[in-house]
Amino acid sequence: MGVRKLSVEELAEKVAEGSRGHVARAITLVESTRPEHREQAHSLLKLLAPRTGGAFRVGISGVPGAGKSTFIDAMGVKLISEHGHKVAVLAVDPSSSRTGGSILGDRTRMADLANRPQAFVRPSPSAGHLGGVARATRESMLVLEAAGHDVVLVETVGVGQSEVAVSGMVDTFLMLQVARTGDQLQGIKRGILELADVIAITKADGDNEVAARVAARELSIAMKLITSDNTKRRAPVLTCSSYTGQGLDEVWAAVVKHRDELEADGGLTARRLAQQRDWLWNMVREELLESLRTSPEVRGVAANVEARVADESLSALEGSQEILAAYARAVPGLPWAR
Question: Which UniProt keywords apply (predicted)?
Answer without folding.
Answer: Hydrolase
